[in-house]
Every structure is written in structure tokens, then in C-alpha cells.
Amino acid sequence: AQSVTQPDIHITVSEGASLELRCNYSYGATPYLFWYVQSPGQGLQLLLKYFSGDTLVQGIKGFEAEFKRSQSSFNLRKPSVHWSDAAEYFCAVVTPDGWGGADGLTFGKGTHLIIQP
Amino acid sequence: EAGVAQSPRYKIIEKRQSVAFWCNPISGHATLYWYQQILGQGPKLLIQFQNNGVVDDSQLPKDRFSAERLKGVDSTLKIQPAKLEDSAVYLCASSADRRSGGYTFGSGTRLTVV
After folding, report:
1. Are the C-beta atoms of residues A33 and A50 closer than 8 Å to each other?
2. DSSP letters of chain A?
3. Can you give the pLDDT at residue B2?
4. What is the pLDDT of residues B97-110, one digit of tens each?
5. Which of A33, A81, B5, B111 could form a disulfide with A50 if both were Cys (CB 3.0 to 4.6 A apart)?
6. Which residues of chain A neighbour B103 with C-beta distances below 8 Å?
7. Cis peptide before B8 (omega within 30 of 0)
8. Which residues contact B101 (CB under 8 A, 6 or more apart)?
């Protein structure tokens, strides 16, 4: 079964500084990869996704992520954070060929992003 | 397009009581998922429906949890009897095609069991 590790529970970044959130996955092949953001009391919003092809993926709100097969990683980056980026960020994976059509997402535990003024 | 609708938004019950959550997916989405998100953790898949059939319920605690999607549209998740450890946010999501990245989540139901 696949698993996702987000090693940083909390990250604090100053407004205007760059951001990198780490995500590592465990799976025999390359899964489909996703980053979601969750604001307090809200559902999950998709930031970006990777299926195949170009390993640098652009998403919404100025976010990007880079898939590195050799490191089984899919780290999320933003060049300059805004106070409104404060939220919980989740990395998630799904197998391209789930048995019987099973394709529910497997999530990491999340990284809580704090923005300092 | 309208999003995934869930109700209620909040529910407080005593342990051993029963509770039900409702989800209406995006129109035309054949696949519906229920996730449990315990505070401080990522969502965990409970069950996946394709139309009105169950595709994956391997992580559903079947001794107390049940779910149905009778007409292949909206769905109900039930807990009976509830335990303290069931306190969580229950998220519903729907998808037309995973390659399109179309997993759309509802805002969830926050359950507190006291």
C-alpha cells in the first residue's frame, strides 16, 4: 500500500519569503500526486497535480511543485508567501491502477503553515 | 457549477448514540468518497462508491459505520453506536475522472462525541 510522509508538522515563514513544503511517498511505481490546501473550517482545495510528463508543475495561487523520481518526492514551493497562505497543506497520492477501480486518495498528515508579519 | 454539498455542518452527540451525515456530489460525478479527518491528521478514506456500488470499503469500521448511495447520486454515512474516538470531520468528495484531477471536496461535517 502507498504511504505519504510530510516531515514538517509546522513551518513558520516570514511574509514575502520563499516557501518549500516537503512530501515523500512510498509506492512501487509513480503514483498520481496532488497538493491540497485546507483553511480553517473549510474543505480541501486542489493546488496542483502531477500525472506524468514535465516534472515541474504549476498550480494556482502562485504555487509550483517538482516531482523527483529518484527521491520519491513532490515538494511544494512558492517564491513569496502572503499572509493569506497561512493554512494546512496536504500532499496526497493515488495509484494509477487501483484494484477494481479503487482510486481514493492517500494523504500525508499535513504541514501547518504559519506566516509571520 | 455547484460544489459538493454536505449536511449538517456540525453535530454534537453523546457516545453510544447514532448519527447520520448526508452528501450530495457534483452533478454527473459517478464516484463518491467519504473521508474521516481526525484533528491533526490527514483525511483517511472510509469508502468509495462508483454509481451505487461499493468499490473500496477496506478502511470502514463495519461494526459501527455504514454508508449507502441508493440511487447513485447522494449518499448517507451513518455511525451507530458512536464512540469518543469518532470525533472528527467527515469529508465527502466526488470525482468524474481522477486523471482530470477532479476530486472535489465538500466543507465537511464536524462531529463531536461527548
Report:
1. yes
2. --EEE---SEEEEETTS-EEE--EEE-SS--EEEEEEE-TT--EEEEEEE-SS-SEEE-GGG-EEEEEGGGTEEEEEESS--GGG-EEEEEEEE-TT-GGG----EE---EEEEEE-
3. 76
4. 766 667 899 999 99
5. A33
6. 34, 46, 105
7. yes
8. A34, A46, A49
Task: Kindly state the cell numbers that stand for A111.
Answer: 504541514
> B82 CA to chain A: closest CA distance, Å?
22
Q: Which of A43, A49, A100 lies closest to B108 in CB terms?
A: A43
Asked if A103 lies within 8 A of B98 by C-beta distance, the reply is yes
Greatest C-alpha distance within chain B? 41
Which of B48, B95, B101 minimises the CB distance to A49? B101
How many alpha carbons fall within 13 Å on the CB side of residue A39? 7
pLDDT in tens, A49-108: 999 899 999 999 999 999 999 999 999 999 999 999 999 999 999 987 777 778 889 999
Nearest C-alpha of chain A: how many angstroms from B30?
Answer: 12
Residue B25 touches chain A, beta carbons under 8 Å = no
Angstroms from B66 CA to nearest CA on chain A: 18
In this complex, the residue of B55, B56, B99 whose CB is nearest that of residue A51 is: B99
